[in-house]
Amino acid sequence: MNIYWQAHRGGGAYERPDNTMSANRYAWELGGIPEADIRTTNDGVIVCLHDETPARTTTAPDEVKNQLISEFTFAETRLWDAGIKFNEAFQGECIPSLEEVFQEMKGRPERMMYLDLKEVNLSDLGRLIDQYEVNRQVIFTHYIQDNCRQMKEIAREVRSMLWIGGNAEQRMEKFRLAASTGFEGLDQVQFHLKIAEGNEDWSFDLEPAFLTEALALTERSGIDLELFPFSFDASSLHQLLDLGIRWYATDEPALFLEGLNSWNHSK
């Protein structure tokens, strides 16, 4: 079966600098779909940045680094390096505008992108998507189902994903709530997965019986079920693959592909 995967923040936790063009290109080159978090600068430019402030990922000066990104102009953000704190090899990376991302996607339908809403006007986002004609390449994602539904109404042919976090009980309840709506406005649902201690037979905090049930329900509804294991090794990834899950998200693309390849070789 075909396996599809999202590079969370482009693989920025471990393998590339968070939300940069280097991270996006890395994921595309490996055959994955990069994910970017989107916010808006003071002058209305949509940019890719996970945090509210530039403190963690950039060289913004101490006197301003804890200010909200929405307080800066886009030109001001270009004064900071967004790669060197990750590794000197990535010196010169900047916080990219979403327009820069779309410029590298336009006319290349194989390049897809997850966009995780942080602070952006949906109508403005829709206009930019339409302008670059990347509608079929975008998967809009948020933890509020209604935002997913609205985005699909604003920009034609955009897909959407509801991501579901919280403790295990909360995740199951949120999933059942989405299912009760017929997964209205959704093309995918994603579960965050955490390692469960003390169970030698199963690695994660959502039980295989529930995941199997969720997979069957989403398949009947014509949508995808995606899993995001925060931590995994080859053995635990194989457990998920054996259930028939074919969509994943990962902070570690290289490690994920290593586990996927070993699973394919075992079949």
From TrEMBL:
<protein>
    <submittedName>
        <fullName>Glycerophosphodiester phosphodiesterase family protein</fullName>
    </submittedName>
</protein>
<dbReference type="GO" id="GO:0008081">
    <property type="term" value="F:phosphoric diester hydrolase activity"/>
</dbReference>
<feature type="domain" description="GP-PDE">
    <location>
        <begin position="3"/>
        <end position="260"/>
    </location>
</feature>
<dbReference type="GO" id="GO:0006629">
    <property type="term" value="P:lipid metabolic process"/>
</dbReference>
<dbReference type="Pfam" id="PF03009">
    <property type="entry name" value="GDPD"/>
</dbReference>
<dbReference type="InterPro" id="IPR017946">
    <property type="entry name" value="PLC-like_Pdiesterase_TIM-brl"/>
</dbReference>
<dbReference type="InterPro" id="IPR030395">
    <property type="entry name" value="GP_PDE_dom"/>
</dbReference>
